[in-house]
Amino acid sequence: MLIQIINPNTSKEITQKLATLAEHTKSKQTKVIVRSPQHGPRSIECFVDEQIASASLLDLVIQGESENVDAHIVACFSDPALYAAREVSSAPVIGIAEASFKFASTISAKFGIVTMLTRAIPMIQGLLFKYGYEKYCTNVRSAEIPVLDLNNISNQDYQSLYQECGKSISQDGAEAIVLGCAGMSELAQELSQQLGVPVIDGVSAAIKHAESLVQLGLSTSKSGQFSTPLSKEFIGRYNHLSSS
Amino acid sequence: MLIQIINPNTSKEITQKLATLAEHTKSKQTKVIVRSPQHGPRSIECFVDEQIASASLLDLVIQGESENVDAHIVACFSDPALYAAREVSSAPVIGIAEASFKFASTISAKFGIVTMLTRAIPMIQGLLFKYGYEKYCTNVRSAEIPVLDLNNISNQDYQSLYQECGKSISQDGAEAIVLGCAGMSELAQELSQQLGVPVIDGVSAAIKHAESLVQLGLSTSKSGQFSTPLSKEFIGRYNHLSSS
Amino acid sequence: MLIQIINPNTSKEITQKLATLAEHTKSKQTKVIVRSPQHGPRSIECFVDEQIASASLLDLVIQGESENVDAHIVACFSDPALYAAREVSSAPVIGIAEASFKFASTISAKFGIVTMLTRAIPMIQGLLFKYGYEKYCTNVRSAEIPVLDLNNISNQDYQSLYQECGKSISQDGAEAIVLGCAGMSELAQELSQQLGVPVIDGVSAAIKHAESLVQLGLSTSKSGQFSTPLSKEFIGRYNHLSSS
Amino acid sequence: MLIQIINPNTSKEITQKLATLAEHTKSKQTKVIVRSPQHGPRSIECFVDEQIASASLLDLVIQGESENVDAHIVACFSDPALYAAREVSSAPVIGIAEASFKFASTISAKFGIVTMLTRAIPMIQGLLFKYGYEKYCTNVRSAEIPVLDLNNISNQDYQSLYQECGKSISQDGAEAIVLGCAGMSELAQELSQQLGVPVIDGVSAAIKHAESLVQLGLSTSKSGQFSTPLSKEFIGRYNHLSSS
Amino acid sequence: MLIQIINPNTSKEITQKLATLAEHTKSKQTKVIVRSPQHGPRSIECFVDEQIASASLLDLVIQGESENVDAHIVACFSDPALYAAREVSSAPVIGIAEASFKFASTISAKFGIVTMLTRAIPMIQGLLFKYGYEKYCTNVRSAEIPVLDLNNISNQDYQSLYQECGKSISQDGAEAIVLGCAGMSELAQELSQQLGVPVIDGVSAAIKHAESLVQLGLSTSKSGQFSTPLSKEFIGRYNHLSSS
Amino acid sequence: MLIQIINPNTSKEITQKLATLAEHTKSKQTKVIVRSPQHGPRSIECFVDEQIASASLLDLVIQGESENVDAHIVACFSDPALYAAREVSSAPVIGIAEASFKFASTISAKFGIVTMLTRAIPMIQGLLFKYGYEKYCTNVRSAEIPVLDLNNISNQDYQSLYQECGKSISQDGAEAIVLGCAGMSELAQELSQQLGVPVIDGVSAAIKHAESLVQLGLSTSKSGQFSTPLSKEFIGRYNHLSSS
């Protein structure tokens, strides 16, 4: 089984971190390719970043399809371009926010989300509503750490994160914590041990969810909303999409 | 890894069918125990059946815990006693309705559900609302087959089921089908081939979801709603629960 | 008119308290039988307790039907087994949470609920959503009193309860208080006088609602979800249900 | 106990019909006054009618308060001026739509509503949402009978009504029928016998609900939204309200 | 273009203030008539006031129609009688709460509302739900100023208002402020400059929205809920409506 | 006043049609610039098209800002990149779907939407939920016309459109029609005359809404979600965004 993990930002350090995490998380039989787009922002922290990354990552989905990957994972907690990616993919496409909500809600009745920046909170709240998980979530909190700091997380940043998780449990009533950024993934285990509740990393959840779907032979329905786009002309820097 | 699959009704034939399905679906490294309670109804078709089965299946969860199983699956599409089971379990407890919604919504934007009896429809609609999946579901349809007929499904029953699935796609706009009864599980693959859309069997989905959680070291949060019940006296036929 | 009041736990003291309350509340022409099951937990404080009590109380509903009672009241604030009870009953079956919401919303635009234990709060929130009363409720608070303490309430417990009611009014904006436990019923009047707002006891509300339905000749619809269960085999300790 | 039933339109025939119905429905110990305003429309069939009737009926609530009535019933299915009436009343004020939803939902999982005119349907749908009963209602249907025809209902009108009720059951899945107009009240029993499901008349339900509240000593909370209006000047035809 | 602005209370001072504001806000080509009813309360602060004002303002809508006004504005933040006014109008009828929500949500993702009295908060929350804007609003706050004080606002009142707006931004996360009372309209600009976020006055928004609709030739649909009322008899002080 | 209208697809014919429409709709004092991006798809008919157009149109918003336009309109009924555009804009940014819902809901209680392709329906339903207008919309229908056919609409296409509008009114109960595609804008008037109900074209509504906001001095709040993005590096084809 071959899974493509797409880091939708263009930070090589985060791509590298995802590769390390994936090697550790995946089943033996699974192979992973971890890639980031050739175009776009170094980090995704606002709606502009997300829109540009969305357009860029579609190239990687198309490339992965031509390489017959068995599943695609979009490894940014805003789940960028998820529906568009499913249109150009016959394999399943999994967002890490969606996957983490699905895992967290099986093992807790109420989970809290801790993300990097206050600015990302409304984006995440929008996903909770879109996916129907708003009743499961106690609150979305921010540790106020710039995303690129995650390339080399300081002790101070870790403490900020740990403290917001703690408030989520003691003040908001969270029974589990969802980490609201792909860059935090490697911290899940340590945080869980310190906090005494499950901590869900969306990248790991997405890898396992991808393996599950592939093992069951389940793939993106091409009937309805995710059916293949009609051919049409794209001009300028998107000319290469004209034949898709 | 050891997974306990609980058939909450007392029909040995369905328990046997689930065992066969599980052997086929599980990963090599996984072992499964498939059990049904010693007490309760032969099938679950109404609220009374569900309440009795709920009380009965808790004994199996407690037994599984004492045997250190790594996960429990409750294999009835009404997800009976799910929250109570999580109270007495340190391992994850997975309902097949919940699992099937989580898998179906990754590969389709709208799914339909086809169950056995009209009477089960409101129960399933209740679960869609409880879990937040009501916007994903086009409709819940019934093929009008008594649950126990599934022990030995006739060609006529298969045709009824096939036709309701077809209507779900063509009339309701379903892009994938969720089978709304554990007893239908073995038919998923054949139906999918005939219908041309993914067909999700909740038992298989639950097995894969259980394997995923165990592989990630994620288990029921014991902080909050699913914390262990306080000891108290139970009398009469539930005396054995007094020390739990 | 004969009304059966079912105390779903097996605490004789609470059953006795309910009998005293019922005698005081009922109309002259009404007779009441107050019973608790022969099997099950001494108190209902978590999902396990509720599931066991649900299975046990159905025996009493069936017994009451054979005695031609005119209505059944399920006197626990989690409204256990309400839908199943309606399946085996031709008489109306009334839950005390449902009844208290219906009465409170006629005399206030926003009511608060005060219950015994924090653990019970999510169960009650679930009922508010299920019944459509979530917009009416300001908050669910807990006085942190073990249910069985209610058999003989101390002054300290009363003060805790009184203070949570007060916070519900002054901090949350509640215009009336619903008592979230059958065991508190006898305190409603005293609390109302001290607090200066209406205090609704669900048991009293349910008795009056039962009398109303019977006087109007309205009873459980046997068309649809509450129609009589099909006969089937139950084994083991539920063998006696086989002929129902 | 003295209950005031307010017919908010100015049709004496309907007032008379309500008086007859009330005599038949009320408990022996209850006395009823049935009144209609001195000002306003002969029937309530649109938003203009409802607004005018709302302003008019408040005079009767104030009059009833001065006569120390124990409860007020507003006997029009649009529940006009319910919140304003509660401001000027220390006794409970009950709307017949609200009451009928509360009674119907105790004895059925899904009820249908049949009203007189298509034009009234959105008003009723608004009430279902406002009170939180939208999930309980299968559909609102209209029999297309002008309200004043109810003064002397023809066989043809009865047949129209009966047929819409039948469609509500067979096509929409209603398990009980709520009559969506005070003028239909006397037909409930006959319709129920013919249809084989419970038929709820809101006027009768409101009378019983009023008796229940009064017997329990529960009355409109004067803390919060329904507190007494501040004194202020009203000019012109509402000058008499200046001292309220 | 001729727009009628209806002040639904009978305070001449507020009517005068609205006239001044309208002259300043309207386009050159627009003419405005500002009127208040001959009957009703001096201010609208509770449900009784609103019901009486609703009945009174309909006379002005009818008068405006006979004068061929191009649009009507109902200038009270409870949007009284909006649906009834549309029934008797062929021109558009615009409520200031509705208009302010529509403008605020175009320029902010979350807005706060600051009104005069705590008592008005539930009325406004009801409108947010009715119009579908509850997700856009962070909170409704009150500055605790009696409506008629607005005739001649003191520095202290302005400071109270300013401080609640500030809390809405810093504590609730509001990105823009909606002024929840027609009497505050003239303060919008000054508040916006001091607060550094957009401040929306519903009267101005409604005037612009009215001009827009008229310029596009869009007017109240007379098909469906807002179709002209059937003729019927009104008695007493509403006799003049009999021919409408 | 200078308004930029962005046609997010790259079809020059549609850009030209929008220019003609805008000249006809705008106020005398308003100047408009109508532009389409240099990059991207010829039409927007699926999620891929929308994501690419979203990334492309941001360049035009940034360009317009540098030219000090007073407002931006995004003239595609999927409201692409609306939130991102607001981040890079100090002027208001208006989507045509959002604008059309705001205008339609002032003049009708229920509106229907008719769009070009079945495939666009879920996108529009998503917007209805996001903006809170789902209760106002009776149904979204499709006339099954490829978007680019609108460059030169045939009589047959017009008839298809007309018939779907008619069904929306007679079968779904729509009281007004919203045209669900910018390319249909010029047909609004003719359709309205034939159908006898208001027909809302989102482009015209957006132009008027833009003029209104500018006249009132209201602009995008730069506090909160729409605040200016932090500077960061963009690589590859988005390098030009690095300094934004």
TrEMBL record, chains A, B, C, D, E, F:
Gene3D superfamilies: 3.40.50.12500. Its EC number is 5.1.99.5. It is an enzyme of class 5 (isomerase). It comes from the Bacteria. PANTHER family: PROTEIN DCG1. Belongs to the HyuE racemase family. This is Hydantoin racemase. It comes from Vibrio marisflavi CECT 7928.
